[in-house]
Amino acid sequence: MNNQYYISSYCTISSNAVRYNGKLLFEAEYTDVPDFLLSTYQLIGAKYPKFYKMDNLAKLGWLATEVLLRDFDKSKYQQADIGVVLTNANSSLDADKRYYDSVQDIASPALFVYTLPNIVIGEICIRHHFKGENAFYIFDRFNSDFISSYVSNLLETEQLQACICGWTEMTATGYKAVLFLIEKKGETPFTTENINKIYSTANG
Question: Which domain holds residue 158?
């Protein structure tokens, strides 16, 4: 992988804790995931009414991106130069199960919308007006080799100038988001070793 690319920032959300570049922003004691996600939304001071309509996976990815981009000047790029590449192991299973349960009574169109994992990317791109390459891939585990190779290729071939990438997982038993902002300038090299190290420090 070409080490001319760098991790400009990263965000982790897991075990009721939100961290930005390794620094704990806040931690809360919640047994209910929706309550934790709502408290995170309120604490970061976001103003985005559509948030309340999202499913849990979309909220998780959206919140992690809000924190990730807190110091990012997106005006230095064209909208089509910023992309999003996300991965997880269980696709949209959390929303799938909720939708299946709703079908037993009256199917919920609001839930059906989120029965595709790439909807979280759509929510992020709508919020920030990103129009670059975007994709969602499913792996059994966090695949740092794929992420580093795929994103580096997008930057190497000039398809993108910056990319949000990483892992966002939501299941009935837990959640974890680890997102990276990759650019062509910075201090922390975008290597499999570095992204693995950051991923492993996020509990959950």
Answer: 6-201
